[in-house]
Amino acid sequence: MNKLRYSSSSTCLVVLIHITVFLVPNLSYAEGFDSLLELRPQSGSTRIRPRSKRVLFLGEFGAQGDGLRDDTKAFRDTWELACSFSGRTRIVLPAGNTFLIHPIDIAGPCQSKITLQICGTVVAPEDPGAWHGLNPHKWLYFHGVNHLTIEGGGAINGMGQEWWARSCKTNSTNPCKHAPTAITFHRCKYLNVKNFLVVNSQQMHMAFTKCRRVAASNLKVVAPAHSPNTDGIHISASKGVVVKDSIIRTGDDCISIVSNSSHIRISNIICGPGHGISIGSLGKSNSWSQVQHVMVDGAFLSNTKNGLRIKTWQGGSGFASEISFQNVVMENVSNPIIIDQYYCDSRVPCANQTLAVKVENVSFMRIRGTSATEEAIKFECSDHSPCEGLYLEDIQLVSYSGGITRSLCWEAYGFSSGFVDPPACFSCSESCIKQKVLLDPALHPF
Ligand SMILES: *[C@@H]1O[C@H](CO)[C@@H](O)[C@H](O)[C@H]1NC(C)=O
Ligand SMILES: *[C@@H]1O[C@H](CO)[C@@H](O)[C@H](O)[C@H]1NC(C)=O
Ligand SMILES: *[C@@H]1O[C@H](CO)[C@@H](O)[C@H](O)[C@H]1NC(C)=O
Ligand SMILES: *[C@@H]1O[C@H](CO)[C@@H](O)[C@H](O)[C@H]1NC(C)=O
Ligand SMILES: *[C@@H]1O[C@H](CO)[C@@H](O)[C@H](O)[C@H]1NC(C)=O
Q: Where does the record place the catalytic residues (predicted)?
């Protein structure tokens, strides 16, 4: 019989990261960008006071916490007991311990509102062989869970090195195979993830799929620039998601928003290295997709392959619309502003098709900084379904190396207002929509 310890306090220390991305008018680029970032640990450390009396420590369920012995069963047993209680329950993974957890499905809904307090470290098996016979997409897989909080200042480490070495993107003689997403939340509701580290995932770091009402904040997500497909935060088919005050440095998109997601707000993000903040890819394999009501407000991107991007495949359908990117600072970013309707991430070239995801009503406002390439603004839209309702306001993207910058437009319709450098290259006919996208900035997930 498992021994339970009831405790009214726990000894987990956390350091909160607070990020403020300032947009300074008439910024002098010679001064560098470090002054734009303010990283401030809040009053040293804070002792967490549990709101509930019921606290379960993983060690009480047989976990060793030595990083060598398998703690998966202890974790599952703790979760199942916590899930069966009513009221609030806290599961603690204490600091100073490393818990080796094999691929695990963590199911809800639960009677209780659970807080998973990760103060120590959770590690994945290093050897991809541990997934033999299991779903290669999953490591920590939460599904159907409502009212879950994850916090604690600890770390989740995907130990992805061996997976990256075996990727076909690392070595083209390798077969292309799926690799796990470190933490997936599927069909979740009222989720609050904050204040921990996710590092070296096998593939994507954190994914929300078919979720409603999610708040993610004070996260630090880190993997090497060369690690393949290691998106930071991936949002798919979800509605009502806020991601804020986080640092993301990985080998792929810092944040990607795909398939039928809406009411997404991203703010105060530090991104890079990585591929930037992306909407898409959308429309792969002739699929229909709708991404609407997305606001990116406050980001600092440095040395990323792209800055703010919308990417769609030929042959798809649906919409990417009502999107606003604002208050963004870039440093040496290769494609600072880009809409790419000819996206093709496959070994064989993609043929042009008549169908395309319609890109409409997209605003870029107050975007400044340096571009690593000459084409600082690129709108490469579909021949058959042009981009409409594009809007640029207060843009200053100069060359990182001191050359010139320019805009490139293909089938792009819109207009600009205020200072825009490089100047916009849109066409705008009689029917052109002249408006900026104004979204309600006060999206609170719950
Ligand atoms: C790619 O893998 C093949 C077969 O395993 C190996 O012979 C080759 O040296 C690898 N190439 C690189 C660049 O690592
Ligand atoms: C988006 O939703 C529509 C309608 O529910 C569905 O047909 C389509 O497959 C979804 N697209 C994606 C990419 O999930
Ligand atoms: C700027 O970006 C370019 C292109 O990605 C890269 O080659 C170069 O090393 C970067 N410069 C610095 C100082 O990081
Ligand atoms: C697809 O269309 C674009 C725009 O018209 C053109 O630049 C590109 O060369 C075409 N690609 C192929 C593979 O035909
Ligand atoms: C784009 O904005 C126009 C003008 O407000 C609106 O009529 C149209 O429905 C919008 N497009 C989409 C796809 O929401």
A: 275
